[in-house]
Amino acid sequence: MATQKQKTAARRNIKKARSVQSARARGARVPKKTPGLSTRQQNRMQAETFAFPKERKEPLNDARHVRNAIARFDQVEGVSDAERDAAWRRIRTAARRHGVEVEARGWRELMKGGKTGRSS
Length: 120
Fold this sequence. Notes:
By secondary structure, the chain is mostly helical. It has a domain at 38-110. It is built from five helices and two strands, in the order H-H-E-E-H-H-H. It has helices at residues 4-25, 39-44, 63-71, 81-98, 107-110; strands at 50-52, 57-59. The relative contact order is 0.10.
């Protein structure tokens, strides 16, 4: 069941999608989606801009990537708990910098029932 916050976000997204669709119908050129990072751009990024710098996984260069890193945190395999602690600190810092609200108190909350099957 969706929370009130999720319902509000969904309504906001639908409203935005309808306005874009309307603009396109009137002939405006609105890009379909924002461009992601190319491999070249990702390779040029400093290691500190990643949640897991040794593996160069989960870039944290903008709000969209921070939200994605939080959503996929439990899918990162082959890292120790100490590396996860450090990555979580980097994600929280990047979230504050980019204005992303994080509800989870710690990364262990994200691991419950995830792909890795770990639980605390």
